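Retro notes, item 3 of 5
We never archived the inputs for the iron/sulfur cluster complex last cycle. Fixing that now. Sequence and ligand:
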Amino acid sequence: MQRGGLSIYAKINSPIIIRSLNLSRLRITEIFYSLQGESSSIGKPTLFVRLTGCPLRCIWCDTEYAFSGGEYWDMPALLEKIESFNPQNICITGGEPLAQLKPCLELMQLLCKKGHNVSLETSGSIDISEVAPGVSKVMDLKAPDSGEMGKNLYSNIQYLNKNDEVKFVIKSRKDYDWAKMKIDQYQLSDKTNVIISPCFGDIDERQLAEWVIEDNLPVRFQIQMHKILWNDVQGH
Ligand code: SF4
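Structure as it came back at the time:
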């Protein structure tokens, strides 16, 4: 589907013609302005661009509505829409944004060039080596009770730095012990910022906080703020 009204796609929406002209487009589930609910940028007004599609199926996924559907936006119309919010901070999220690898990389590069603070939320299952250097990467490592631990691409860790974050969503004591082991194995806290976050509604948040304190774990404990403020309603 076409949005934005200005695009060449309105006249030539054949995939073959689009490919031959080397034009980019992205399938988008939603674009909305809210507060960043997690990561080191928590609380900052942020424009969220949620890309459609994800190859994973985490048991506790809270964005299943982004698995399918969405609308295609050509790059110029998408950039125009984004700029209409005059955003300082932009979060590219999903789904798994890197499932649309090339146009997603292009979008982030263009937004960085325009001077925006750009962050990327990614599952950790797709190569992040080509993400523009200015982008702050927030990468999951999927714990056992996500059901998707086998998809973790550990080679991605080498591309993380102090401007980035690794996030563990914890559903159980088993997940917590596994996260501790991975933090130690990859010396994650020396390389990047590490976030431990309770799986909303599945684990006693206070219990998890106490484990982190007991172990003096070199991480940031964080509860997703948007779920407290807006009870996980879509669009926040
Ligand atoms: S990677 Fe994210 S969007 Fe994909 S299934 Fe897991 S939680 Fe959901």
